[in-house]
Amino acid sequence: MDGRNQSVVSEFVLLGLCHSRNIQVLLLVIFCMLYLIIVSGNICIVILIITDSRLHSPMYFFLANLSFVDMWLSSVTTPKMITDFLRENKTISFGGCMCQILFVHFVGGGEMVLLVIMAYDRYVAICKPLHYSTIMSLQKCIGLVVTSWIIGFVHAMSQMVVVVQLPFCGPRDIDSFFCDIPLVIKLACMDSSNLEILMNGDSGVLAMTCFILLLISYTYILLTVHQSSKTGASKALSTCTAHITVVVLFFGPCIFIYVCPLSITWMDKFLAVFYSVITPLLNPAIYTLRNKEMKNAMKRLRSYYTDSNVNI
After folding, report:
1. Taking the mean position of all CA atoms in its chain, how far away is CA 282?
2. pTM, to two decimals
3. Which of 304, 283, 288, 307 is nearest to 51 (CA)?
4. Cα gap 291→55, rounded to integer Å
5. Which residues pair with 92 in a beta bridge?
6. At residue 4, does pLDDT exceed 50?
7. N or C: which end of the chain has fewer CB within 10 A?
8. How far apart are CA 69 and CA 91, in angstroms?
């Protein structure tokens, strides 16, 4: 493989989730509603955390960033999938395909690191409460979030520098609703088996490293909680349960796609939908419906606007 782009393919064809026209219409309605809920739900969380001074703490700062990342992750693939339900010719340009790969791995990699940071925040809050305000200062929090973006960007670029140089000259059908590295590599006009293992290993190392760090963090937290007072343990356990749920929902599909690929087309599509649509949809519900402070903040915001309308 030389250092230049040998591609003679100007666009790829996305085969989508199914071929039945009736099912596509049904999926169009479903995913339109889901995407609107994802965008509106995550925007509400970000606005709520920014405007409510009682939520100006490291945990909610990270949660606002997670909501922003989830909204972006879903927006990389879902709008294209929705518009393709309306089209007979479901094509994507070579540049558009490369952009999808870049941003999926940029945002996805950043989210993995951000979830580790959120676990570290809970570890400090529960295991070292007397030093929490010192350790988790504003500068430290900003630095950690910036680090997550940097790691995500480096991870994405490590994939892109290889993929953009692959020679594409033959088949151009991608049996999914968006471009992803394992599917695109298979279309290269070369023996890509070793390269596929290498690229999946790149994503797998990041995913498994973050997952192991998360397991270590929550193990320490649960051991500390077990030794704590009943009231404190109950509150901490409730918070950690929400975090662990998000971790399982996000990392489970990623591990099966990149670390232990199933090579079953319908299962790969389901897992891709899960981490790109379902997880960003569930995160707001998990964090808001299980969080007493978030629910109280929503009530205060609703009361504020209700009183304002009454005064007018």
Report:
1. 11
2. 0.86
3. 304
4. 12
5. 12
6. no
7. C
8. 26
Supply 50's token pair: 């920014």
Which distant-in-sequence residues (6+ apart) come within 8 Å of 219 by Cβ?
Answer: none
Report residue 312's pLDDT band, with 50, 70 and 90 as the boundaries. Answer: low
Q: Give the angle subtended at the CA of 27 by the CAs of 21 and 32, to the nearest 5°.
A: 130
pLDDT, tens digit (0-9, with 9 covering 90-100), for 79-129: 999 999 888 888 899 889 999 999 999 999 999 999 999 989 988 988 888
Q: What SS3 class is residue 187?
A: coil
CB 105 within 8 A of CB 153: no
Q: How far is CA 240 from the centre of its chain?
A: 19
Number of other CB atoms surrounding residue 55 within 10 Å = 20
**CA–CA gap between residue 201 and residue 158 (Å, rounded):** 12
Q: Which residues contact 296 (CB under 8 A, 6 or more apart)?
A: 54
Tokens of 145: 């979030």
Distance CA 188, CA 60 (A): 44
Residues 6+ apart with CB under 8 A from 104: 73, 76, 77, 178, 180, 276
Q: What b/e sequence results for 219-237 when a residue is b if at least 16 CB atoms lie within 10 Å of its CB, and e otherwise?
A: eebeebbeebeeeebeebb
Alpha-carbon dihedral sign for residues 59, 63, 66, 68: negative
Structure tokens at 312: 């007018």
Please write the tens of the pLDDT for every residue from 25-36.
999 999 999 999
Query: Encoding tokens for residue 70?
Result: 């989830």
The residue among 120, 118, 125, 121 whose CA lies nearest residue 225 is 125
| Ramachandran bin of 238, using left for φ above 0, alpha for ψ from -120 to 50, beta for the remaining angles | alpha
